[in-house]
Design goal:
single chain, 347 residues, alpha+beta, eight-stranded mixed beta sheet, two-stranded antiparallel ribbon, 10 strands, 31% helix, globular
Amino acid sequence: MAIGVLLAHKIADATTFITFMKIWASIAREADEVVHPELFAGAILFPPVNYKFPSNDNLPSIQDEPCVLKRLLFTASNIDALKAKISSASVQQPTRVEAITALIWKCAMTASRSIKGMCSRPSLCTQPVNLRKRLSTPLSDYSIGNILTVITTEFSETDIELQRLVLKLRKELKELKVNREEISDNTKKFLETTSSGIESGAVDAYNFSSWCRMPVYEADFGWGKPTWIAFINFNVPNVAGFLDTREGDGIEAWVSLREDEMTIFEHDEELLSFASVNPNKGPSNLDQVHVESTTDTLNVVHKPQQLGSLDSNAAYFGMLCHMSLSTSAVIYRSFNRELQGGRRRSK
């Protein structure tokens, strides 16, 4: 069984998406209590503005170049080892997301510079920041809207060190000012800087998004909680999305790069010392999911595609989410014995 959901990033962010799925699941399984969302929190806090967003239509690098999507698995022990490598007097207690973002950004920059024959090519790292808990009057996670801003970190130095990248990422977050004017200016700067840089070809812009610590595995529609959640079909290059593993201690990173850069990236020795690239299997007891005719699990993606053939012996729950730069899909598998055992409710 599959359920499709289409979400426009113009009106909602990842937190809103998760809230929607949680409430929908609660209604589906006839839960005793269903939380009602605060539907207009975002619109009240950030009223619509008359601003023309840059269009991707004029960016041939986004439209024409095929890209490859790879899944990187970071186990808990490897994450601890990576954090230990980055830790220093100047970088104390790096977070999981900081460490993995720095590593992937470094390896992507190295691949790009190698292809282009440049040793100090400028690079941008953009990250969305959830504002709900950062406001002077914090909002609940049930506040609906696009209640976020984007921070942009620039790097153009010749030597790429993980500690240096984490320091720069932290600096941008620390200097973030949470007020309406600053947030609006941040968004405009992000859109204008990334679009102009990509169009001119003078800079590499990487977009990172972390869904870690979000309760994505809590959506129970009456068949049990999901077994595996995955991003599918990033149809543009230079995008990375992070998700917790089902156990919560590891992280799966989905990375989309141009084909020539991915060839170098996926063989980076430093990357491979901390991550497994496209592990043959997902979580235990989960069969592989293939995209169209690709032979490697969720591997080459040239254009936006639909899910291919799924295992006919299992029931799946699918959730398609169209974001500003990607198409995401969440795959839930429920075991046949659970469905046949009466866990699936019917009216």
